[in-house]
Amino acid sequence: MESLQEAAALPGSLAMHIDKEKEDAADAHSQACKRIPTLPEDIWHHIHSLMPLRDAARAACLSRDFLRFWRCRPNLTLNLTTLGWTNKPGEFRCKIDSILRNHPGIGLKTLQLDLLEDEDEITFSDIDRWLQVARTPGIEELILTLFANNYSSLYERQEEYSFPLSLLSDEKVRSSIRCLDLDSCAFRPTPQTIIGPLRSLTNLHLNSVRITGDELECLLSNSLALKELHLFDCDEIVTFKIPPVLRQFRFLHVTECYELTVIENRAPNLSVLEFSGDIIGEISQVKNVRLMRSNVVHYARVVLPSVMPNLEILRILSDSEEVNTPMLTTKFLYLRHLTFRLLSGSTFPPSYDYFLSLVSFLDASPSLETLYLEVRQGSVKSESVFRDSSTRLRQMPEHRHLCLKSVMMEHFSSDKGLVEIACYILKNAVSLECMTLDTNYGPRCHGQRDKICLYMADSYLKDAPRAVAAIKSYINCNVPPSVKFTVLEPCTRCHVREAR
After folding, report:
1. Would you tell me how many other CB atoms lie within 10 Å of the CB of residue 196?
2. For the packed helices 41-50 and 64-71, what is the interaxial angle rounded to 10 degrees?
3. Are 227 and 251 in contact, with CB atoms under 8 Å apart?
4. Residue 290 φ/ψ, nearest 5 degrees
5. Secondary structure E strands in 223-312
6. Residue 472: how many CB atoms within 10 A of its CB?
7. Every domain of the chain and the residues it spans
8. Which residues, in sequence order, are CB contacts of 450 under 8 Å at separation 6+?
9. Residue 403 three-state SS
């Protein structure tokens, strides 16, 4: 009974459980103890830590041991899924208060707060108070998402929540925190607010966070163990520098930071880069790059071979190309995997030839093994290989590709350039093992009943039969017997509209 009384302050869902079992709680506890096998306490503690939060809390109602395990549970994920929500004003806030009052922070390794606006019941002082549970020895992961489940969030108002820097100045936190993930708040680190290095921080994720380039540099300079940095929608950053003291820094991912144009890297071992702007400095060791911006195809071909000579994986995504990619003598000597995606909302200008651009990349990549290609335009009709009955495919000079083994062309249409690319590869890739031409638009359901293929516009669905006809008329005759050649048509379950 004592454990039931102590557990009564746990989440609201437990109250119903307690009421239901109140009359025979003592007997239930006695019977439960008889059924529970004798195991070492550390094993039971581990089992309890793997249970979903609500189940773990229910178990704490029936046993003093499980109540003790609850109070030192190593992971707390507090959101609508784990707590439940009945849309009662203030309920979400009260549940979090109740849980954190009963968890002193002992043994806590992961704290995740995904907070709903909750009709203005949650205040900034509430968040400050809840984060104090992370001020404990051994905390490794802190994830804070503010109001992500509600469009009318406090982040969109004039006021903003500022992450308490005093938390990172605490010696207990600085010595153990490994992952910091912040979403929709202000983060203003300065030399005065961060006292001492964050010795164990290896992963930093900032999503829609208000932080300047200087403030980010300050944080990086105090994070000597940092390995990964992820930035998303951080529009106060214009430029920033990665200091040379980050000798373990390997991975940089930046998306939708539209004001950020230049990153200066001085970390000597950066190897994976995903960015839409310019990066200068120490980048010769980069082996894996994903670039996303307009005219990136020309930029990648002209610039990258000289500044990133060790490149092994290259993924380029462009929404607009205006400048043809030239044939150059520079090479990607170690490039093994190439993803080539041109996704335009309209048609490419008549002067742009993406076929020649891809040929330039293939010519420059003697070690290339796999190629993923997707070309999508707002209109496919004007470029169809069937536009003119006298259409002839271009014959390029033969250039043997000795390592290319696998080719995937997604959203394959009757576009003349795509047909020419497929024929060029089949004729010149002497080690080719498989080629797949997918006429579908986007991800497939693969026959799984709980999934659905991405919607295809009528123009694309109408072109799918023409794409299959183009394959039969121009490509099949070029397929060597040793190549596994696969043609995927639109899904008959998801795309049932009649092509008109």
Report:
1. 12
2. 60
3. yes
4. -130, 120
5. 228-232, 239-242, 251-255, 262-265, 272-275, 278-281, 288-292
6. 11
7. 1-73
8. none
9. coil
How far is the C-alpha of 9 from the C-alpha of 353, rounded, in Å?
A: 68
In the chain, the largest separation of any two C-alpha atoms, in whole Å, equals 89
Helices vs strands, H then E, count in the chain: 16, 18
Read off the tokens for 67. 């109540």
Residue 40 identity? P
* In the block, residue with structure tokens 């395990």: 69
Beta bridge partners of 316: 291, 340
Q: Which two tokens stand for residue 482?
A: 């040793």
* CA dist., res. 141 & res. 451, Å (int): 33
Rounded CA-CA distance 338/371 in Å is 5
Starting at the earlier edge strand, list the strands of the sheet with 239-242.
Answer: 239-242, 262-265, 278-281
* Mean per-residue pLDDT, 239-259: 93
- Tens-place pLDDT, residues 260-301: 989 999 999 999 999 877 888 889 999 999 998 888 898 899
Phi, psi (rounded to 5 degrees) for 312 = -115, -30
* 325 contact partners, CB below 8 Å, separation of at least 6: 297, 298, 301, 302, 356, 357, 360, 361
The pTM (predicted TM-score) of the whole model is 0.77
Which candidate, 191, 128, 136, 189, places its Cα nearest to that of 161? 128
Contact partners, residue 303, CB within 8 Å, separation at least 6: none
Report whether 218 contacts 191 (CB < 8 A): yes
> With contact defined as beta carbons under 8 Å apart, do 133 and 113 qualify?
no
Q: Which of 21, 134, 149 is nearest to 81 (CA)?
A: 149
Residue 245, both tokens: 């003291």
pLDDT of residue 59: 60
